[in-house]
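Box 3.1 A note on notation
Throughout this textbook, protein chains are presented in two layers. The first layer is the amino acid sequence; the second is a token string describing backbone geometry. Keep the layers aligned when reading.
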Amino acid sequence: MKHKPAINDLLKVMARLRSPRGCPWDREQDHLSLRWHAVEEVYELMDAIEAGDDHELEEELGDLLLQVVFHCQLAKERGAFDFEKVARRITDKLTRRHPHVFGNIKVKNVDQVWANWEKIKRAEKLGTRHARSSALDGIPKHLPALLRAEKLIKKARKANLIPETAGKRTLSRAKLAAELFSLAQSARQWGWSAEALLRDEIGKRERRFRRLERRQARKPRVTAAGVSSAPVPHCCSVFPLAAL
């Protein structure tokens, strides 16, 4: 007897849980009510990875897969998509964005892999409502503030909105870690949330970077034929592909 893929059983279990004879709690859920469950499962997965515990890693991967299956079932019920479409879409994306593996493109290093990935991604989104008009686009707004700040800085530097030397000074890892903790402690003592304060500052910096980006995009371009006074129509022609 041919062994059936376990994913089929999981999909059936999820459909049963959502059925009229299923679980009252599962039937109450929607995409919004589940969104933070997925975040929590990711953090638990990180704990298992860092602990080097394969037993926990297996379990946490299953819990994360459950979140994917749950959202797919919800989408299937409203006629949007199902697990099969999600799996097919990511398979097609991986194939399409790895032309050096599944096509005839040659690459010399990881930097070229990333450059091709970003170029293909930009082409896929061009002309859609998901097209990225700014080098700063694509940072999830719900990332923890410190991680979001790091990604914003990285993108801004690649787009030449922040000099590479900005903020550099002699500082050890231990001293920087102590300063970060001290800042969080100071915020707590004043009754402020360090997370909220940093998120507010990120918003201000991002708006400033975007204004600078727009000004740079309006600057005349220098070509082989001379200086063109026409504005640059799209920021992607100003900034390197890796920044998008």
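The chain has ten helices and two strands. Residues 31 and 208 are 33 Å apart (CA to CA).
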